[in-house]
Every structure is written in structure tokens, then in C-alpha cells.
Specification:
By secondary structure, the protein is α/β, with parallel strands linked by helices. 36% of the residues lie in helices and 11% in strands.
């Protein structure tokens, strides 16, 4: 199976970008006394979505290849975001760049800092990070009230999901970040949190690290109740291919059709869409609670 046909790199990019970043939460080279930025380049799709949600989308002067909001289609792309062209960035003359935290294999932030560019590098691992980033962007953009309102809305929607599935059995969930080798989510990530909020159990909550690679033999041993694939391709016969694949065909969830696609453009972005992702996930795990709302 050609996994690149149906898996997007969004969540994997987040995992790789943050790996080895340590506790450098919210790296920044901002001048605290500076004015609110008016020309922004966001290399992180979830941060881009937050800026739009805060009503400051008109300040964006570029997008990444992973920004699919039609409202941003007219903006120039700076590529995948992890290794942008510094020359292109400087030509755009941004007064704020939102970048992935550096790790030992990358030095985008330090190189941009040498060019005198203001940088904000938020963590993007947990729901707490979503709230923290929203607050910080609201502060920087002069949209603090909008940020508070957005967080309150997200928290209220998540609370509604928790209440809807309370007291129900919790199916085990294997969230597939990457197909070969099998890569999933451990504890301490927003995906693991959303699984819990939606009334499920993360099959690999006990695995070390945020985004661990696991053996297919171990997946078979654990026999998850539901398998989730985050993808943007809906025309790939995923279940049929897995049913023929060694190892995967040994999973009851595959044989019994309990493999579900979820929208990678929603699920793989720890931003304003996390509440909608939780609702859709709850519909998958507990369709009896949402009889008139089929998973999308």
C-alpha cells in the first residue's frame, strides 16, 4: 500500500518538529515593547487557523502547503513549513514569524533570529498548549478578548462531549499517525486527550513518548476495538487493502469493518478545531448518542 496516497504528513510533522525540543515552551525573540504585528507568516497550520479564528487573518502574508482554508488560497506558499526558504521569508518582510520549535536537526529559529525577525515558537502537543498558544497570540495581536472567548467556546464544547458520553463503555482506539512502520499517539498528546474526552481509551497510552512507533505484532496482541486513520484521501479503498495486508488482516477491527477515516485537516491540527474533532470522534465511538449525526 502506498501510504503517501492516503496519509498526510501534518501530525507526523508536528511530532518530528517538536521531538527533542525539550522544555523550550513558547520560544521567542519578541520585543515585548513592540507594536502589534501587521505582517505575519505562520509556518504552523494550527496557529494559522487560530489567527484566522481571532479575526486577524488579514495580517497573514503567506501560508504553508498544508493551509487549506480557501480564504488563504491567494497567499503565496512558503512550502511545508519545517524548512522554509529564508530568502523568501525575508522578501515577505514579516514582523512576526510563527515557527515550529527547533530541534537538534533544525535551526530555523536561530537563523531567523540572526536576521532580526521576531519569532514565536509555540508547543503544539496538548490541549493546554492549544489554550496557551491562543492566549499568547491574542496578546500579541491585540485580540485578548477574542482569545478568551475562543477558549471559553472550545472548553464549553468539549464539556458537552464529555457529558454526552459519560458512563458509557470506552472502546479502545488505535490512532494511526503513520502506516509503515505503525506510528501512533502515546499519552500526553491532544489526540490522546480527545480520545478520552470522546469516550474512548487510547490503545497505546502506556507507550513511551508522544508519537511512538509500535510493532504490528503488538497491535495485533492488543486488538484495538476501533482503528482510526487520519487522511484527506477518501477515494482509497483503505479497508479492502488492510484486509489483504499481512498483520493488519489479523486484527478483528479490520475483519469486522471497524476502521474509520477521520479528516486529517481537522484531527491533525491542535487549534480551534479540537472541539469539532472531539464531537466527530464521539460520533464514531458512540453512534448511539448521536443517532442523527453520522461521522464525517
Amino acid at each position: 500500500m502506498n501510504t503517501r496516497q492516503f496519509l498526510t504528513a501534518g501530525l507526523l510533522i508536528a511530532a518530528v518538529a517538536c521531538a527533542g525540543a525539550g522544555d523550550r515552551r513558547g520560544q521567542t525573540t519578541v520585543d515585548e515593547a513592540g507594536e502589534s504585528p501587521q505582517r505575519i507568516v505562520s509556518l504552523i497550520p494550527s496557529a494559522t487557523a487560530t489567527i484566522v479564528a481571532l479575526g486577524a487573518g488579514d495580517r497573514l502574508v503567506a501560508r504553508s502547503d498544508y493551509d487549506v482554508d480557501p480564504a488563504l488560497a491567494n497567499l503565496p506558499s512558503i512550502g511545508q513549513g519545517l524548512t522554509p526558504s529564508l530568502e523568501q521569508l525575508t522578501l515577505l518582510a514579516p514582523d512576526l514569524v510563527i515557527a515550529w520549535p527547533d530541534n537538534p536537526s533544525r535551526s530555523v529559529i536561530s537563523r531567523l533570529g540572526e536576521l532580526g525577525v521576531e519569532i514565536y515558537a509555540p508547543e503544539a502537543q496538548t490541549l493546554a498548549d492549544v489554550r496557551r498558544t491562543t492566549v499568547e497570540l491574542g496578546r500579541r495581536l491585540g485580540r485578548a478578548a477574542a482569545a478568551d472567548s475562543l477558549i471559553a467556546s472550545i472548553d464549553a464544547q468539549l464539556a458537552d462531549v464529555v457529558a454526552a458520553v459519560a458512563g458509557r463503555d470506552r472502546p479502545s482506539v488505535f490512532y494511526v499517525v503513520w502506516y509503515q512502520p505503525p506510528t501512533t499517539t502515546g499519552s500526553g498528546t491532544y489526540i490522546s486527550e480527545l480520545i478520552e474526552i470522546a469516550g474512548g481509551r487510547n490503545s497505546f497510552a502506556d507507550a513511551p513518548g508522544h508519537w511512538p512507533q509500535v510493532s504490528l505484532e503488538e497491535v495485533v496482541r492488543r486488538q484495538p476495538d476501533i482503528i482510526l486513520f487520519a487522511t484527506t484521501a477518501e477515494d482509497i479503498p483503505l479497508l479492502e487493502q488492510l484486509a489483504k495486508a499481512p498483520g493488519w488482516r489479523e486484527l478483528a477491527a479490520v475483519r469486522e469493518g471497524r476502521v474509520v477515516r477521520v479528516d486529517a485537516n481537522l484531527f491533525n491540527r491542535p487549534g480551534p478545531g479540537v472541539a469539532e474533532a472531539a464531537r466527530r470522534l464521539a460520533r464514531v465511538l458512540h453512534p448511539e448518542v448521536f443517532p442523527d449525526q453520522a461521522p464525517r
